[in-house]
Specification:
Chain A: This is DUF3857 domain-containing protein. Chain A is of the alpha+beta class and 684 residues long. Chain A contains ten helices and 35 strands. In chain A, 15% of the residues lie in helices and 41% in strands. The longest helix of chain A has 19 residues. An eight-stranded mixed β-sheet of chain B has the order 5-4-9-2-1-11-14-13, with no helix packed on it. Chain B has an eight-stranded mixed β-sheet with strand order 28-29-27-26-33-37-36-35, covered by helices on one side. The chains are: A alpha+beta (684), B alpha+beta (651).
């Protein structure tokens, strides 16, 4: 996350008389918790419990945070105070008595922890006994890397039934983002409250995520004053390190408050893109400063402004103005490939060949593209800004698109905040259309984006800026075709081709490359325990992502050990659906896929003359309400010795609401039941 | 390895080098891929071109190890080997770390720069504090193949550990050439053990300037693959394990020449740290005052420990091997495995009972007992019980880091292995409890109510004991009921079902812990309907999958490590209007690997009763017998899938 500090000391003199128009008096609101004020009531059960949480391991009784901005020496700082009280209910909840506080450090700016205090309260013989956290033996700090320090502490004497309480302050030089606040946890939370007091000369935008309604959400103007310290100038700009001069600033501050009450334990579900989209939280970003009341310095007020600022940033836009380290190669492509689309593809392959993506989803480059090129690796911005440079060097109209990956959460378009983005791809204008390119996945065909990018829409950074859709034209497609032949003894023999295209092709290829071809084949051989593979599997079109990837196998299913007159054939067993992906009966959040899906199986069976079909599965058609999914199953017998089964399951939406879940689960359940049906043959 | 519960010191520590500065100046191509023989590339994602390690014993308290390692990465599955993490801590420092990467022709692409190496705190995720850090160098490339080369040197002030030379430490990694040299003063003789060295390879011993020199060399080791039910790779690949006789850590001198001596060192290091405050001693004495039975007294002390402490890991410097004083645990109510076991020992003392701390290698293969050396990662408590008039001599084992572990039960974490008892007379190697076919049981009774459309409901009651209950027991302690249900839903081997009711209960009072699981299920597609027939497999939840026949022949012996007995009874209540057309035949299999039987009977009221028994033994056998084992498993799998065919009589 990007953080910076505003150098505003020159504007200070103007501040003292500034009063916002909306200023009004407001009564100070009592804090919801007072550190050390633990009573017998804190050991009692929740008066308004959530049924599903009756056996929770622990419960947050109160979690209270406040952020305010104060003057410091030649700068402003954010002071964040947190006081938290947790009731440990079961031994499994002991981990909640250990707290980890990560702090950020960047060159000479830092976050600092102070005022750490903690107590454990135990009810002993009807009396509350307390044990103090010893800062000399129970608090540890560890430098994780050059930007992160981790403070860890654990409270003493924790038992089942203990109430633990801790408080600390973080003083931060990073004004750009205030501390976020997360209102929900994996355990139930009775009361979570966050307050911020922001002086009128700083304006922040905030964004809230989540489903549960706030119990309170209010804002009011309150009087504000702080001291700002200036180093004394001793002439000609040299700074005296001795005494400082303190200026008192008085103005109004916008006091905001959010309260979430009785939040149940938050639980993740399968097929959920980003849990944080559903968990209550609030985030901030500095929008601008105004030290006079009529001199608003806008930092990120609109998407357009965000775009302009980013294009000027040395780790983003400035990079685009530098020459690509692949300029020579790109120039050669100009003459060799006059067709723009072919040239764009060649540039994409060039960058893919030169650089390996290190798995870090980032909006900003971590190093000059020259270094990315030399080291042959980088984060997503390193890779794709090199791609953009090179596309431009190849004389193509290419611009960055900012996006939020699926695991990072959905973009809220009416909240222009830079921190909503965490990833950059390239947009190319062609004579006959446009293209979105991402060079992080060498196994992807040109017209596809990695699955992580398929998250509604992205922000195209041109001089005007625009939203571009990030839905894929390609879907997840599996196509299996099998030809079986039954012999007189009841043994089935045949071949099967499993085809994977679109995102299924990407997933299958990724699997092959991550585990190696031979391991993949070995694993394939273990997939069917009843069927035996008669030759090793063959992989087709593994190297060419523009084509469907396929696996060919030859297999046999031995007949009954003693000859039987009635033969039951599980014809779709090796080919079809056999597992309901929606295992859980309940659903609280939407099911979220990145693409639509289509699974097709076509099976043909040749029968020997002495067998006749006695019973065959009936045809079936299913549809989800609103045409959100279709299942079709059809058995044909064009000649007495031949059967053709066709099955197709389609999910035509990428998101299914919790209300649709039961139908979706039942839909799969019926399709699986159909595939489990046997073919009954009679021997003459 | 530190005794810190699950904590394992990264294996890279055993690494080293022979670096000459000319290696960096010489522009001549090296490690060209075309020089590699085809047999080394076969089934490999990478080939170790060189792995040269030198262990220099400087003194009784200091060693220096240098490693030169070059690996050709053949494809993406080997990309991890282009990264190197060199760990260090308060007792181990990195003198240098260098690297370079070469293209397929062996031409230098670039050298590692200091700014490319990242320094990380290696938080293990469960410790509150550790001093483990690591330097990470990454030389991954986008085009394969390529070769990475690393050189590093570590000075260690922890001579409890010497190097383990294991050039082929990963599956699907071949080795072209590797050497190991140890230089030690004559006064500090080397102890070493050679394992699985190729025919003809052995130590070359010489003297050189007053030093004893040992040398090993291996060439052309083909890549190995891990096979199902095979031994761990470490039991197959060549390695030389070294250890000190005399050693000294932070002024604490000892010897690892025998288990007795190694145990003595550990005992002395922790001696006198078991003093409890007087009021606590009095409290414990009062707790057991009226109890005569020794075992019950121990149980009361153990339950006190479980109720008043929890596991918190702090591993700093010598603190990896030396416990916090018992008084600190009594003040804070927490400690790591050393501290909690030591505290438990002190509590027992206060109750007039003698217990011993014991070192063990938890959650990993057992130690090599024939080579005394520091191979442990955990500490438990052992209480010998003398023979009495009514009971024979016995031992109570206590896991002190768990607040919920059943009294006297070790489980899969520390059971079935060796432990080093730390006594005033030194170390004594003993066995922890064994859990075998009689102890590890799963007994299941299911009533399935079928309807004519193929839907069913089922009521299933399963009792798990011994190692079979470990997983459910951990779940019962660690997860709330909603999470337990989610976990069970994800682990059931059914394709299409809903859990309508569920309940888990633990019984930890008896000698062997037991968990009972009750499940009510809805099975919308229990039977598959085709026209007038219903097909259903009576084996509802206990199908054992077949094992794959080996492709191209079995390479390694077979190690079956888990012994158990499963008994299943499934009663299928068939509605009126359905008659069996075809019932699976009885199956009875008796082999050296285990026994299996399955029968189906029709009860007088028309209920179909399926009874299955499976007993698997803990056993090891030669690879030649693998096909017989595959056949045994195939027959079980076939029998487990056998289907009942019911015919609609009214249709």
């Amino acid at each position: 996350m990007r953080r910076f500090i505003l150098n505003s000391s020159l504007l200070l003199g103007l501040l003292c008389n500034y009063q916002p128009a909306a200023a009004q008096k407001a009564a100070a609101l009592k804090p919801p918790i007072s550190f050390g004020d633990v009573s017998a009531a804190d050991f009692g059960p929740n008066p308004t419990p959530v049924a599903a949480d009756s056996a929770a391991e622990a419960e947050v009784l109160c979690d209270y945070g406040q952020s305010r901005i104060v003057g410091a020496t030649e700068k402003f700082q954010v002071v964040f105070d947190r006081t938290t009280r947790i009731h440990i209910l079961r031994k499994a909840g002991y981990d909640w008595a250990t707290v980890r506080v990560p702090l950020y450090v960047d060159d000479d700016q830092r976050e600092k922890l102070s005022n750490l205090k903690g107590f454990t309260y135990n009810m002993v013989g009807g009396k509350v006994e307390k044990t103090k956290l010893d800062p000399s033996s129970g608090v540890f700090s560890e430098k994780i890397d050059k930007n992160h320090v981790l403070y860890s502490f654990t409270l003493p004497n924790v038992k089942e039934g203990s109430v633990v309480e801790f408080t600390y302050t973080i003083t931060s030089d990073f004004l750009f983002n205030l501390q976020d606040w997360q209102f929900q946890h994996r355990i139930p939370t009775r009361w979570s409250e966050y307050r911020v007091a922001l002086p009128a000369f700083f304006r922040y935008k905030e964004i809230t995520h989540g489903y549960l309604p706030f119990a309170a959400q209010d804002q009011t103007w309150v009087p504000y004053s702080t001291g700002y310290h200036q180093n004394q100038q001793t002439g000609y700009g040299s700074v005296n390190t001795g005494p400082t001069q303190t200026t008192s600033i008085s103005t109004q501050a916008l006091a905001q408050r959010w309260v979430l009450q009785n939040a149940p334990a938050f639980r993740e579900e399968p097929f959920m893109a980003a849990a944080q989209d559903y968990m209550r939280s609030v985030h901030f970003e500095l929008a601008g400063s105004d030290f006079t009341g009529h001199d608003f310095r806008d930092l990120s007020h609109t998407w357009e402004k965000i775009g302009v600022a980013l294009l000027a940033d040395e780790r983003f836009g400035a990079v685009l103005n530098q020459n690509s380290p692949l300029t020579t190669e790109a120039k050669a492509l100009r003459t060799r490939l006059p067709d723009a689309r072919a040239r764009a593809e060649a540039v994409l392959r060039l960058v893919q060949q030169h650089v390996k993506y290190n798995g870090q989803e980032r909006l900003y480059t971590s190093q000059p593209t020259r270094k990315t090129y030399e080291q042959h690796q980088g984060n997503s911005a390193d890779v794709n800004l090199l791609l953009l440079q090179t596309l431009r060097a190849a004389d193509l109209t290419a611009n960055p698109v900012l996006l939020s990956t699926r695991s990072h959460g959905r973009i809220v378009t009416d909240m222009p905040l830079l921190s909503q983005f965490n990833y950059t791809i390239a947009h190319v204008v062609l004579p006959d259309g446009e293209l979105l390119l991402d060079a992080t996945e060498p196994l992807l065909p040109m017209e596809m984006l990695p699955e992580r990018c398929l998250n509604e829409q992205g922000r195209l950074l041109t001089t005007t800026g625009a939203w571009v859709p990030l839905t894929s034209k390609r879907n997840y497609l599996e196509y299996t075709k099998a030809d079986f032949k039954l012999d007189d003894t009841g043994t089935l023999r045949g071949t099967m081709r499993q085809g994977y295209s679109g995102y299924a092709g990407l997933a299958a290829r990724q699997q092959v490359f991550s585990q190696g071809e031979s391991s993949y084949k070995t694993q394939l051989g273990r997939r069917w325990t009843d069927w035996q593979l008669t030759t090793p599997p063959t992989l087709l079109e593994l190297e060419d992502p523009s084509k469907a990837f396929a696996v060919d196998v030859a297999m046999t299913l031995p007949g009954p050990e003693t000859p039987a007159n009635t033969l039951y054939l599980p014809l779709m067993q090796a080919v079809g659906l056999n597992n309901n992906p929606f295992r859980h009966a309940d659903r609280f959040f939407p099911v979220d896929f990145s693409t639509t899906r289509e699974l097709t199986q076509v099976v043909s069976l040749a029968l020997p003359a002495r067998y006749t079909v006695q019973e065959k599965p009936a045809d079936l058609q299913l549809a989800l309400p609103g045409n959100a999914g279709k299942f079709l199953y059809h058995v044909a017998q064009p000649t007495p010795d031949r059967l053709e089964i066709t099955s197709r399951l389609q999910l035509t939406k990428t998101s299914y609401s919790p209300a649709e879940y039961a139908a979706l689960r039942e839909f799969y359940s019926r399709a699986i039941a159909k595939h489990a049906e046997m073919l009954v043959l009679q021997r003459q | 390895m530190r005794y810190s519960f699950l904590f394992c010191q990264a294996a890279v520590l055993s690494a080293s080098l022979l670096l000459t500065s000319t290696a960096w100046a010489a522009p001549a191509p090296k490690y060209s891929v075309s020089d590699l023989s085809a047999s080394l590339r076969e089934n490999a994602h990478g080939v170790v071109r060189a792995y040269d390690e030198t262990l220099l014993v400087k003194s009784v308290s200091r060693t220096v190890s240098t490693v030169h390692r070059a690996i050709t990465i053949l494809d993406g599955a080997g990309a991890d080997w282009a990264q190197l993490m060199v760990p260090y801590d308060q007792l181990n420092s990195i003198n240098y770390l260098r690297g370079a990467v070469y293209d397929a022709d062996g031409r230098l692409i670039r050298s590692l720069r200091a700014s490319d190496v990242k320094d990380y705190g290696l938080s293990d995720g469960f410790s509150l504090a550790t001093d483990n850090r690591g330097r990470l160098a990454t030389l991954q490339q986008s085009a394969y193949p390529y070769t990475v080369e690393f050189d590093y040197e570590i000075t260690s002030d922890n001579s409890l550990f010497y190097s383990t030379w294991e050039p082929q430490d990963e599956p699907q990694l071949a080795v072209e050439h590797a050497t190991f040299r140890v230089l030690t003063p004559a006064a500090l003789p080397l102890r070493y053990q050679e394992r699985h060295l190729p025919q003809g390879v052995q130590a070359a011993h010489s003297q050189q300037g007053g030093q004893e020199v040992y040398q090993w060399e291996v060439k052309a080791l083909a890549a190995m693959e891990r096979e199902p039910d095979g031994p761990p790779l470490r039991e197959l690949v060549p390695m030389v394990v070294t250890a000190p006789a005399a050693f000294e850590v932070q002024g604490h001198a000892g010897s690892a020449a025998s288990w007795q001596q190694l145990g003595q060192w550990s005992y002395e290091l922790n001696r006198g740290r078991d003093v409890l405050p007087d009021d606590l001693r009095a409290r414990v004495a009062a707790l057991v005052k009226d109890e005569k039975d020794e075992r019950v007294r121990i149980r009361k002390v153990y339950e006190f420990l479980q109720a008043n402490t929890r596991y918190i890991s702090v591993q700093l410097g010598l603190g990896g091997w030396q416990t916090f004083p018992a008084s600190a645990v009594s003040t804070n109510g927490y400690g790591d495995c050393k501290a909690l076991s030591n505290y438990g020992m002190a509590l027992l003392q206060a109750a007039g009972i003698t217990g011993y701390c014991a070192l063990v290698r938890a959650d990993a293969p057992d130690i090599h007992t024939e080579f005394p050396s520091s191979q442990f990662n955990h500490v438990i408590l052992c209480v010998p019980l003398a023979q009495t008039k009514t009971a024979k001599a016995d031992t109570v084992w206590l896991e002190c880091t768990s607040q919920t572990a059943p009294f006297g039960y070790m489980g899969s974490f520390t059971g079935n292995r060796h432990a080093l008892l730390l006594t005033p007379q030194g170390g004594k190697l003993v066995r922890t409890p064994t859990y075998g076919v009689r102890e590890n049981r799963r007994e299941r009774l299911a009533d399935v109510y079928l309807d004519a459309q193929g839907k069913a409901t089922a009521a299933v009651r399963t009792a798990y004991t011994g190692l079979e209950q470990d997983r459910l027991s951990a779940m019962l302690d660690g997860l709330d009921p909603a999470q337990q249900k989610k976990y069970i839903t994800e682990s059931l081997t059914l394709n299409n079902f809903s859990i309508t009711k569920f309940n888990l209960t633990a019984n930890r009072q008896q000698a062997l812990p037991m968990v009972t699981e009750k499940l009510d299920l809805m099975l919308p597609t229990f039977a598959s309907v085709s026209g007038k027939r219903l097909f259903l497999a009576p084996n509802l939840l206990s199908r054992l999958p077949a094992v794959a026949a080996p492709v191209g022949g079995r390479q390694s012996d077979v190690w079956l490590s888990h012994a158990y007995t499963y008994a299943d009874t499934v009663r299928i209540h068939v509605p009126a209007g359905l008659q069996p057309e075809n019932l699976p035949a009885s199956v009875q299999l008796t082999t050296v690997f285990g026994t299996y039987s399955a029968q189906l009977h029709t009860l007088p009221d028309g209920t179909l009763q399926y009874v299955r028994q499976l007993q698997m033994l803990r056993t090891r056998f030669a690879k030649a017998e693998y096909p017989a084992y595959v056949e045994f498993r195939r027959k079980i799998s076939a029998a487990d899938k056998a289907q009942i065919v019911l015919l609609k009589t009214d249709a």
